[in-house]
Write a structure and sequence with these properties.
Layout: H1 2-36, E1 44-48, E2 51-55, E3 60-68, E4 74-82, E5 86-87, E6 99-101, E7 107-110, E8 113-121, E9 124-132, E10 144-147, E11 150-153, E12 156-159, E13 164-169, E14 175-181, E15 184-186, E16 190-198, E17 212-220, E18 226-233, E19 240-242, E20 252-257, E21 269-277, E22 279-280, E23 283-284, E24 290-292, E25 294-301, E26 306-310, E27 317-321, E28 324-331, E29 340-342, E30 351-353, E31 367-374, E32 391-397, E33 400-403
Parallel strand pairs: 2-13, 15-27
Antiparallel strand pairs: 1-3, 3-9, 4-8, 4-11, 5-10, 6-9, 7-8, 10-13, 11-12, 14-16, 16-21, 17-20, 17-25, 18-21, 19-20, 22-23, 24-27, 25-26, 28-31, 29-30, 32-33
């Protein structure tokens, strides 16, 4: 019994020594691994800004900050970002087409992912940027893209602990416009009516707009307008355009489209230019008549919202006249000498100098005032009343004397008219230009 106990005790002691030795060996292995490669577990990557809300078609710049903590550099390094993470945007769930390279190198795009090839990254911390721009008119309001970068190299990978979230905004911003040209038209003369559909909030920098799935436009032509044709911009539209018969008056122009015509037109507008004359079935309109038209539209946005719009101004008009005129002024360019003199106190020879005051010497110049009428040959009885304020000494600006507003007399004119010549018509007996 005692020998057995002694043997048992010896066996346990040996086992304990073996276990202890084993633990000691295991500790050396773990310690050796930590020293040899503190490695890829402590590489890192982050993205900023964390949250951004912008309108569609507005550029957002993201910065990637990544660290290589591997002794001997990180080989074959790259950053990958899954792009099939868009929510709230209907069937469009991938944002790879929104991404463009900034300073991040070698951008590639594959199904559901974008990647930047970094190559060999030396031990240290670095940053680069890229941009994201969601397309206008096809991005729904409230759509979100989650952007989660992963840094990979030959030794492993690490994913950003916090992704960036991009939220997009888009609104119902379409409108109608209309106009006439000219606003005063000769009886029976050419007249242009126009109407347009504004495909968003801005003609120059469209952003934050929802596109359309359907578009219908109507323009009611006036009864005293003879239709001759219509032009559209863009010249080719995907919808159906219906117009009255050439030579007819009144009627309606209609356009039925599918919404795609509003994706990217010039100046973000679809324009219809209606050509015709100020006449009724070819008979010239009466002087004083108004030629007016009204355009309207009904349309459906891609989010299902239905809307209507009436042209602004609501009903633009042209006034029918029997004669039209324009005026023009042509000045013969000349720098006029501005000289003055004073007598010295000692009575010596007067001294010349330049000053903004009355002139005792100078030079002459001339200018033409022209009135043009339409039609060019008209009957007698026209009365012209032209007013051209003269430059005024009291209105000196730099080296120029400016005129008062029409109707405001100038007490000290800087330009003195000497001769006024009339040509192109014979003044009535006793009539003469003033001043003379």
């Amino acid at each position: 019994m005692l020998a057995a106990k002694g043997s048992h005790m010896h066996t346990r002691s040996r086992a304990a020594r073996l276990i202890a030795a084993g633990v000691a060996v295991l500790g050396l292995i773990i310690g050796g691994t930590a020293v040899a490669a503190p490695a890829y577990a402590v590489d890192s990557i982050s993205i900023s800004p964390a949250t951004t809300t912008v309108a569609s078609n507005v550029l957002t710049t993201y910065t990637l900050t990544y660290s290589c903590s591997t002794s001997g550099n990180c080989l074959n390094a790259a950053v990958t970002i899954p792009t099939n993470t868009v929510t709230g945007n209907g069937s469009n769930t991938d944002f790879s087409s929104w991404v463009s390279a900034g300073t991040c190198p070698a951008l590639t795009k594959t199904a559901g992912q974008v990647a930047f090839a970094l190559g060999t990254v030396q031990t240290g911390t670095y940053s680069c940027n890229f941009t994201v721009r969601a397309p206008n008119k096809t991005t729904l309001n409230g759509a979100k893209a989650t952007i989660t970068p992963t840094f990979t190299s030959s030794g492993g990978s690490v994913t950003a602990p916090a992704p960036a979230v991009l939220t997009l905004t888009a609104g119902h911003n379409d409108s109608m416009g209309a106009g006439v040209n000219p606003s005063s038209v000769l009886s029976g003369a050419a007249l242009t009516l126009s109407f347009s559909f504004g495909c968003g909030s801005s003609q120059t920098s469209p952003a934050g707009d929802l596109g359309l799935s359907a578009l219908n436009i109507t323009d009611a032509l006036p009864a005293n307008f003879t239709f001759s044709g219509v032009l559209t911009a863009p010249a080719s539209l995907p919808g159906v355009l219906t117009v009255p018969a050439v030579g007819s008056s009144g009627g309606t122009i209609t356009y039925a489209g599918n919404g795609s015509e509003g994706l990217n037109p010039a100046n973000n507008r679809i324009v219809f230019t209606v050509q015709g004359t100020a006449s009724t079935n070819g008979v010239p309109d009466a002087v004083g008549a108004k030629v007016c038209h009204t355009a309207s539209a009904s349309f459906t946005y891609i989010d299902g919202f239905a809307a209507t719009a009436t042209s602004t101004p609501a009903s633009p008009c042209a006034t029918v006249i029997d004669i039209d005129w324009t005026t023009n002024k042509v000045v013969t360019p000349k720098t006029m000498v501005n000289r003055g003199q004073y007598t010295a106190l000692d009575g010596t020879t007067p001294t010349l100098y330049t000053f903004p005051g009355d002139w005792d010497g100078g030079s002459t110049t001339s200018y033409d005032l022209t009135v043009n009428t339409k039609p060019a040959t008209t009957g007698s009885g026209l009365s012209y009343d032209l007013k051209d304020p003269l430059p005024c000494i009291d209105n000196l600006s730099g080296a120029k004397y400016l005129s008062n507003a029409p109707g405001v007399a100038c007490a000290n004119p800087a330009y003195i008219p000497r001769v006024v010549t009339v040509s192109g018509f014979a003044p009535a007996a006793g009539a003469k230009p003033s001043p003379c």
